[in-house]
Amino acid sequence: MKDFDRPRFLRVYTWAFFAVLFVPIVLVVLFSFNSQRSLQRFTGFSLDWYQRFIENESLTSSLRASIEIAAVTMVVATLLGTLLAFGLVRARTRWAGGANVLMLIPLVTPEIVAGVSALLLFTQLGVRLSLLTIMLAHITFSISYVTVVVRARLASLHPEVEQAAMDLGASRIETVRLVVLPALWPAILAAGLLTFALSFDDFVLSFFTTGESPQPLPVRIWSAIRFGVTPTINAIGTLMLAISVLAIGLAIGLPRLLGRRESGLGVLLGREAA
Description:
single chain; 274 residues; mainly alpha
């Protein structure tokens, strides 16, 4: 039986799609190593623009602020999102269906709406905008992402396993600690690292909830490019891209490296282990 004859235009369309998607990113990375200030002509490799970024205290403080915000968001949102996933999957009330729908609303709400809402809330409460308000906004927005990933994994676990553990003498807390969490931790880890990446390069929420210096790095970049794009901006964008790719790579690869059969990508896509 002959293989399916795939239309050639699909291959052309696929390569064109990836070219439009990734060529601008490649150009940003390439010109971040340009030896001259030109953004049109590459004249040679140099690390001068990275050195200028490191020597700029305002930019490095923004980088530290972004990492701090992302780290706190990852820890708190992962904890709260995991607890919410437990409640949604194990709840036996008539409100469980409605709660599942409400949990999905932040995922489909335009981020600018969430940013404006957070700004109005903090303003009405008289809360001074700072790194704390950015963290609160990011945590609130990220909980749903964690819940979706962990809930999918938790729903795939057979309740009979937990019942068997309790039949053997384990309490409900011991069952969760010794049986459920070991099966869930790849999803929890992947969701946490995904949240870190999303929070680290988030601009909209950070823009509406940021206060005085230090500002998160995406907001600082936006302030700088209003006066023109420089190779230093390209260097900052490349560093942010590297950190985000590293976080996503860890989310995908760590479960495999630590001995799990499934990869983090399968967990994020909701696939069950083989």
